[in-house]
Amino acid sequence: MKLNNPVSISIILAIAITLLSVISAYCYINNITSLALSVVLFLLISLFILFFIIKQFIHERIRIIYKNIYRFKGTSKLQNLDIDTVEQEAKEWADQQEKQLQKLKTDENYRREFIGNVSHELKTPIFNIQGYVQTLIDGGIDDPEVNSKYLMRANKSVERMINIVEDLEVISKLETDTEELLLDKFNILVLVQEAIDQLEIQAKKRNIHLKIVNEANTNFVLGDKHKIHQVFMNLISNSIKYGKDGGSTTIRLLDMDNNMMIEVADNGIGIDENSLDRLFERFYRVDKNRSRDIGGTGLGLAIVKHIIEAHHQTINVRSTKDVGSTFSFILEKS
Questions:
Q1: Residues 241, 296: contact at Cβ < 8 Å?
Q2: pLDDT at residue 67 in the model
Q3: Is 175 or 275 the better-scoring residue by pLDDT?
Q4: Beta-carbon contacts of residue 239 (< 8 Å; ≥ 6 apart)
Q5: Which end of the chain lies in a sparser environment, N or C, as judged by fewer CB atoms within 10 Å?
């Protein structure tokens, strides 16, 4: 019999006490019938008293702890209390609370860092606009060359702010699932070519060659065409920004049974291994000075990650410093 509830504990203790009492009583009582009745009566009284004490002062207090554990686990369903499992249950609950606490701390640090990054990213164009407007107010408005140049610069800063806000809105919708995917069959080869055509001028400025290598047995996949186009625009644009002069970017389509693997590979500056884990965080920049010089909101890869995950897939990256980077993801064939 396991000693894991008040009844079993009471029975064992009552029997033990009764046996001791029988031995003592045997020495004084010669009548066997009277001895038997005394033993039974003593056993019942002992059992009742022990059960009451254990139930009221030990078991119920443990039960309260047990119920609290279940309540913190998010359920009110409490099975029969088994003392053997209380320690394990309490340990598991404590470990769970520790993990949740660590997650809260991590989320809090991430939130604080994110707010700081947003402030920093918006502060730069705001200060630029303020400086240009102040110059115009101080008399620059009367100089045709100055007012035109400064108005153009102010407009660029406004566009940068709009891009940041729009990208933040995209991420917010993707994270909260308020923007549903429009899944449909489309020609991914045509979509890649469209992205290349849009980025051709940017690539020529950096003297970077863009090419497609199609090794798939079909050009048609299932996904949200508009959002996958965003993925290609961000990945190819990044490969140009962080590429080497005279380098290349290759978009490769590969067969994977019922799926297609898409790779965007470059032979650019690469990414340090220490930065790979944080690469898809919002506003995270591998090379902050270079990133600000070549533009961008710092949200492109975060958007890519959310779009691919919304398709129930994962974006992967492998990179070697000064050798290049390859981003890959999978889509279902249509």
A1: yes
A2: 66
A3: 275
A4: 208, 249, 264, 265, 266, 268, 325
A5: N
Q: Which residue pairs, CB below 8 angstroms and at least 24 apart, start in 158-164?
A: 158/125, 158/129, 160/125, 160/295, 160/297, 161/122, 161/125, 161/126, 163/297, 164/118, 164/121, 164/122, 164/297, 164/299
Percent of the residues in the chain that have a pLDDT greater than 90, as a whole number: 27
Options 1.10.287.130, 1.10.10.10, 3.30.1490.20, 3.40.50.1860; CATH for 109-176 is: 1.10.287.130
The dihedrals phi and psi of 311, each to the nearest 5 degrees, come to -90, 10
Report the CATH superfamily, name and number, of domain 183-333. Answer: Histidine kinase-like ATPase, C-terminal domain (3.30.565.10)
In 181-298, where does DSSP find H-type helix? 188-198, 200-205, 225-241, 288-294
Q: What is the pLDDT of residues 210-254, one digit of tens each?
A: 999 999 999 999 999 999 999 999 999 989 988 888 899 999 999
Residue from 63, 70, 57, 64 nearest 4 by CA: 63
- Written as one letter, the residue type at 159 is E
Phi/psi of residue 9, each to 5°?
A: -65, -45
Q: Which amino acid belongs to residue 256?
A: M
**Six-digit token pair at 257?**
């049974």
Which candidate, 237, 156, 243, 235, places its Cα nearest to that of 202?
A: 237
Cβ neighbours of residue 81 under 8 Å, at least 6 residues apart?
5, 59, 62, 63, 66
**Contact between 223 and 313 (Cβ < 8 Å):** no
Mean pLDDT (whole number) for 91-117 = 70
Q: Is residue 294 exposed (0-12), middle (13-18) or buried (19+ Cβ within 10 Å)? A: middle
97: tokens are 């609370």
Q: Which one-letter DSSP state was computed for residue 83?
A: H
For the chain, domain boundaries:
6-81, 109-176, 183-333
Whether residue 269 has pLDDT greater than 60: yes
Instruction: Average the pLDDT over 91-113 and give the result.
Output: 71
Confidence of residue 164 (pLDDT cuts 50, 70, 90): confident
